[in-house]
Amino acid sequence: MISGELFIDLLLGIGALVTAILCLTAKDLFQAILLFISMGLLVTLAWVRLGAWDVAIAEAAIGAGLTGALLIATRRQLNQ
Amino acid sequence: MFNNMTLSDSAKQEADLPGCVLLIVGMVVVAACFFLAMSLVQFQPTDQPLVTLVASNLEQSGVENPVTAVLLNFRSYDTLLEVAVLLIVALAVMPFSLQDTRLPFIKVSEPIERSLVLEAFLRWLLPAIVVTSGYLLWTGAALPGGAFQAGALLAGAGILLLLAGHHSFNFNALAARLLLVVGLAMFLLVGAGVVLSSGIALAYPVAMAGTLILVIEVAATITIAAVLVLLFCALQIEPLGPQPNRVEKEKHL
């Protein structure tokens, strides 16, 4: 019987890996960006589970939030 | 377009790589992963000399959060260089027209398409973000938080403001340039100023360390927020500016 905490940790780790692979293999750029943002959020939760709150806040704000906005703006430029 | 050309060129190169090269690269990556996993397995939670070292010197740092103590006191040289790197990034993406220097930093105009939901939402959200950012900055001395997190949040507020369409920023204005350099300038000033009392650059006197760190962090927060908003602005306004490099870098990563 797997304990609850280990289950959550495994889910976060595998989820981050799966979203990373999906992000790299996605054909559509917009899909890839959204997957990248989701991976950022999963990694944020992983940092929280590791007790690294400083890194978690930075990852949530920069990794998931700002980079996502920058990538979407870049995509818009590419489409023009 | 140049962007598409870069993308398709590197895609072609990827396809042309011979199988043995791919095999060698794959083996190197697998070996690196294996050694990393092995070191992770052998790493005991008890062999962390740095944790005890930081904990025993925390009183001298002027702050209670060990992460902030390392970032802004024990290894402040690294953080100084990080802020300098941000300034270089800002210089690389600055809009290059010199005519806008005399125009004001913030321009208010009627947006092309109004989003009423976003506007109404931002009326509530923006003050909350600014207050949260200030809280993160202040609490960084004792709890998780600090200049980078606060700056990133503030930049998020700036980007949301841009998306609402009523305001636009002119980063050639004098005020904007001041915002972009104040972090590094304050860091250098404090770092050089403490030479007078302690004799070593960036070695803060223990009694004033907390205040000096807070001063540096406030300035760094402003600069980080300004640089991140500038990045977004550069992508929004310029049709062909810094993106070719960005795309290339992403592809090579």
UniProtKB/TrEMBL annotation, chain A:
Pull one GO CC term from this UniProt entry. Answer: plasma membrane
The cellular location(s) given in this protein's UniProt record come to: Cell membrane
The answer to whether UniProt assigns keyword Lipid biosynthesis to this entry is: no
Q: Which UniProt keywords apply?
A: Cell membrane, Membrane, Transmembrane, Transmembrane helix
Membrane topology for this entry? Multi-pass membrane protein
Q: What Pfam families does the database record attribute to this sequence?
A: MbhD
Q: Which residues cross the membrane?
A: 6-25, 32-50, 56-74
Q: Describe the location of the MrpA C-terminal/MbhD domain by residue ranges.
A: 15-79
Against InterPro entries, the record matches this protein to:
MrpA_C/MbhD (IPR025383)
The yes or no answer to whether the keyword Hydrolase is present is: no
Where on the tree of life does the source sit, at the highest rank? Answer: Bacteria
Q: What is this protein called?
A: Sodium:proton antiporter
**What organism does this protein naturally occur in?**
Pseudoalteromonas rubra
TrEMBL record, chain B:
Q: Which residues cross the membrane?
A: 21-43, 80-99, 120-141, 147-166, 178-206, 212-235
Domain MrpA C-terminal/MbhE positions: 29-94
Q: Where is the Na+/H+ antiporter MnhB subunit-related protein domain?
A: 117-230
Chief place of localization: membrane
The GO cellular component terms are:
plasma membrane
Q: Where does the record say this protein resides? A: Cell membrane
Q: Which Pfam families match?
A: MbhE (PF20501), MnhB (PF04039)
Q: Which domain of life is it from?
A: Bacteria
Give the UniProt keywords, A-Z: Cell membrane, Membrane, Transmembrane, Transmembrane helix
Topology relative to the membrane: Multi-pass membrane protein
The family line of this record is:
Belongs to the CPA3 antiporters (TC 2.A.63) subunit B family.
**In its UniProt entry, what is this protein called?**
Uncharacterized protein
Q: Which organism is it from?
A: Pseudoalteromonas rubra
